[in-house]
Amino acid sequence: MDEQTTGDGDTVGADAGAGRLRRALAARRARAALAGGLAAALVAGWLVIRAGDDAAKRHCWGAWSQSDEPSLLLERDDRSFRETAPTPERPRGSCTITASWTYGTDETIHEKISVSYGTGPKDAKKRRAWLAALFADARDQLPEGLPGFVSKGSAALVLPEKCDVDGRPSVVTVSGVQSDNEGNTASLPGVSSEPWQAGQVLVDVANRGMEKAGCAPEKPLGFTAPIVSVHAPDGTFDTSFAPGACRIDGLGPAPRHGEEDEDGLHSAVGPVGDDLQTCVVYWSDNMAAQFSMTAHPRLLKLFDGLTGGAPLARGWRGQGYTDADGALVRTRCAGRTTVMFMQNTAIAKSTPFATPSRVFPVYAAAVAKRLGCAAVTPHGEPA
User: Residue 56 pLDDT > 80, yes or no?
Assistant: First the structure.
């Protein structure tokens, strides 16, 4: 009798073996088909998952999805995204979202949101300019003790100490600008009408940035309290000098009835509290000088390395400096370490703010008096 061997190694007779061989081969083909079908199903499932990921793609280090990005950018079909996430080895990052759309028949609107993660410049002169720009955007302070602030077109948050790099705090900033035929306007699309929303956008991206950099706290940063605007009422800074900018008597010429004076000089007062006080002086809508005071420990850390170890000048209480570009003093005020800071720009050369040694003592004396601390300048008056 002829013999036949199956693929499974069984030896059978020719007549019976032929049927069993056909059945064995059919079973093998079925198993192969099933395996192929499962593989195809897995591939199809992976494609569905990937398609779902793409449909809900997240941007700015994973902080925002297409369903919760700043809303005006969400509606644009020609958005573009560029981002570099921070890492533990390289704790710096950036993210940019841009979009354009046509208004009417002949005007194109360009929108841009920029996010940054990193420390300020190491160089002292560059850091002073960076700090002036940072605090110039402080219009409302974040609540619940968070070391940050928001304005119409920007927001900034100083991160916890765990995220410091070479002793310098890491800062997350979010800023927006809208450009049209008439120029640029600072604006965070979809959130700028409500400071609370801008603050939430800020903490969302800050938490994500800290995760990427490997320094996230156990409990994510956040707040639920409203952002309350705290500004200086008239008469807060009564120093017996002539009326001045920033509602501080004697601090340069005062605008008339809250409007620009003949030289186009005016000021914008930011928050006025125990932790933070800011004011920006403008000349023809360009920043001429920026003044700030802070006693918040994390905000104070931003000024480390700038103070020096000597008094600002003879008779001053505290360490600091004054030069052609600005002034700074770090002192004790009402039991707290406090920094008062001024930085001017090239625009200031045509204004009284071109000489910090003349105007900064007025500012420091007024702030010390408001906070109820001992005189900082000689005899509590301009030196």
Answer: no
